[in-house]
Each structure stands twice: as structure tokens, then as C-alpha cells.
Amino acid sequence: MGVPPSESHHRRRSSVRAPPDPPAEDTDDDFSHLNHSHDTDPNRDRREHPADDTDSLSDLSSLAESVEMDYRSSDDDLHDDEETGLTAKQRRQRHRRRRQRRQLDARIAGVKASRQDGAVVNLADRNVAKRLLVNAVLIGLWYFFSLSISIYNKWMFSDSKDVEDPVVFPFPLFTTSMHMVVQFTLSSIILYAFPSLRPRHPSPAMGYVAPAEQPPIITKFFYLTRLVPCGIATSLDIGLGNMSLKFITLTFLTMCKSSALAFVLLFAFVFGLETLSIKLILIIATMTIGVVMMVAGEAAFNAVGFALIIASAFFSGFRWGLTQFLLLRHPATSNPFSTLFFLTPVMLLSLILIAFAVEGPAEIFNGFMALANAHGIVAGVGFLIFPGILAFCMIASEFALLKRSSVVTLSICGIFKEVVTISAAGVVFHDQLTAVNISGLIVTISSIASYNYMKIFQDAPRIPRRDRGAE
């Protein structure tokens, strides 16, 4: 005899519609039957069929969608267990599939993130490699043009008894003046082709000013008091250095010309550009000792050639001091091309006058006729202007390298360039170096490196972060 059920007691629909222990493979049929029974309710969403384990691992896109649906309906599913009549085994299977989907979704997200991070790293590596490659090419071009013009000038200005080719043109001052003509022409072409390199007026503080009302960038007073002294000093620096090649070897010229830094520091003290300190005095003294050692070890010492190269180093320091003191941050000399455009006429005039006074117009004419008779007029003119093209290309590559890197990089590469030049001179002209020569060269280069090292730490707070990263 049974007790009648109470009206307040609701029997679970699972006990009527599902067997006590249905097999796992019949779960889909039960779900479809239950969904069919709930289709009559318009307020209830239709539940999708759960995928099996094989489909959840193979189809990634459907897994992502199903996981998203599981996240949305996770709270509802907890209450649906009582209504749908899921057994403990069915709930475990459902939780296992949900956990697999979540793990797979996390794995997919991790793969995507790692691919994105790898793409960013690869792009950065490619940019760094590209920048280093371009800088290496510019350094190589700078070295190539510098070595080419040094070797060419040594061959061109040597006496006929010192070289195998009996036809040379040993008139370095006149030839250097022809270089100025070439550089003026090429700089004019560059400024015409690239208007952004032309000197411009600084932005006025009061707003727009009509072009007719703006003062000229170069005044007569500025030209006579600043450009003319710098042009004369530059012409003497280059002209005397080339003239010394008639008497000394290229190796000895390179070693002695490295002492120009001592004169640069001396004129920096004179013009107030550097503060006198014990460190700088020691650097100058060490460099002087190195020069003395190089001179003492020179087997074929020539007093005239040594005097010319030391005078060239003197005017090199004087030119640097004048440039820093007079032309610093002026729009007319904002880049090497505009500087050449304004300085080369002064350099041409001063070199022509000195060449006629020292080398003589008759001797220059006879030397050119001998060169033209041996190689032709066109080739003779080409011999005179070709070094000017090399010098202009060297300046352009040096300027491009400076824009992409920094002064520190240029200084370090300049030190190594001296070593490369000496090595090339030994290969081409068979210049001999003694132990004293090499010791003096090491002392001089060490003092130059010490100065650059000191300047790096002095200027580091003023160098922008981008420039320091470029080094």
C-alpha cells in the first residue's frame, strides 16, 4: 500500500524520459529528444549539439565558437542539469569536452601571440641589419674614395724618377685649384637638384616675412670676415699637404698628418672652444712624442716635406678653429654642399695665386703640354679633374655617414682609416716602416683614441637617445 504523492512534490522529468543508466553513446539522442520536447517553449533558446572529441580537436574554428557559447551559458548549464536529467557520467563527459575546448583555445591564442611577437622581433632585426649594412657600405665608400685620392695624388705629384710612369704632373698647387673648380660645379648641381639642401633663412620670430624684405643670407661683411679666412686656411691645408707628396712618402704623410689633432686642440684653446685641462695637455704632449718618434724612425727623412706636412697640419687646426668659431650654425654652411659652394671660389683664387707664385705659369703650361702629348688633351684634362671628383664623392659619403650615425662613429672610423691608408701605401708604393715608426704611430693613435674616448663621455648627456642608439 503506497502513500499518494503530495501535490507540492514535483517528479523529475529525467526519471520518466530517460532510463536510469543510459549508455554514453546515446547521449546525442537524448539531447535531441529533450530539445524536441522544449521546442514548444518560444522563450527558450535552442541548444546546439555538442561535438565529439575528434571534431573538437580537428576543427579549430568551430571549437572557438563552441567555447564562446560555453562561456556564455556556463551558469545556465548548472541549472539545466536538474531539468535535462544528465547523469554524473554525462556531466563528467561534458566538463571534459569543455576543458579540452578551453585548453585548445588557449593554445591557439598562445600560438597567435607568439607569432605576432616573432614578427615584431624579426622586423626589428631586419631594420637593424639594414641600417648596419647601409652604414657599412658608406664607411666602405668613404675609405675607398679617401684611399683612391691619396694614392692617385702620390702618383700624380711625384717626380718622374720616383715612379715607373715617366709622365706625371708634379704641380700639386695648380692641380688642387682644379679640384676646387670640380667641387664647385658638383656642389652647384647638388644644390640645384635638391632644394632642401639650399641655405635658408631661420624662421622669423614675428611670423611671415616677405622674401623681398628678408636680408641676404650672405652679406659682404660676412663673406670677407668669415668665409674668406676659412677658405684661405682650407686651401693651405689641402695644397701644402698635396705639395708635400713630392718629397715624402704617403706613409710618412699619413703619420705626420695625424698630429693635426694637437693643433686643433691648441686653436680650440685660443678661440675659447675648449677649456684647458691637465688631460688635454697630456694628450697633446703624448701626441708630440709620437710624432717625434715617427720622424726619428723615418729612413728617408726629407726636411722640406716634413715642414710642408707640419704646416698643413697647422692650417688644418687653424681651419677647424675658424670654422667652429665663425661659421658654426650659420645657414650658409649648414651642410658640406652649401659650404663647398661658398668656400671653393675663395680656395680656387688663393690656390691659383700661390701656384703661379711658387710653381710658375710657364712650368705649369709646359707640364700640361707634356701630359697632353703623351695621353691626349682630353685625357690630360681628365687627369687633372678626376681627383676633384674623388674628393667630392668622399665628402658626400662622409656627410651621409654622419647623418645616419654620429660624430663618435666618424671619429672611430677615421682612426682606423689612417691604419688602412698606411697599409695600402705599403702595398702599392712599398713604403718601409721601422720599429720606431710603428711605435710612434701607436703612441699617436692611442692619444687620438684617448681624446675621442674623453669626448664621448663629456658629450654623452647632450647626445639624443636616437643618436646613441645609432652608434
Automatic annotation (TrEMBL):
Q: Which residues cross the membrane?
A: 132-151, 171-194, 221-241, 247-273, 280-297, 303-328, 340-358, 370-395, 407-429, 435-454
This protein's membrane topology, according to the annotation, is:
Multi-pass membrane protein
Question: Which regions are flagged for Basic and acidic residues bias?
Answer: 30-52
Coarsely, its chief localization is endoplasmic reticulum
Disordered as annotated region, ranges: 1-103
Residue ranges occupied by any Sugar phosphate transporter domain in the UniProt entry: 136-452
Q: Where does the record place Basic residues bias?
A: 89-101
- Could you confirm whether the keyword Endoplasmic reticulum appears in this record? yes
- Keywords tagged on the record: Endoplasmic reticulum, Membrane, Transmembrane, Transmembrane helix
Q: Subcellular location, in the record's words?
A: Endoplasmic reticulum membrane
Indicate yes or no for the key word Transmembrane helix: yes
Instruction: Give the range the annotation lists for the signal sequence.
Output: none
Q: Which GO terms describe its cellular component?
A: endoplasmic reticulum membrane
What role does it play?
Involved in the import of GDP-mannose from the cytoplasm into the Golgi lumen.
Family, as annotated: Belongs to the TPT transporter family. SLC35D subfamily.
**Assembly:** Homooligomer.
Q: What protein am I looking at? A: Triose-phosphate Transporter
Gene it is expressed from: CAS42
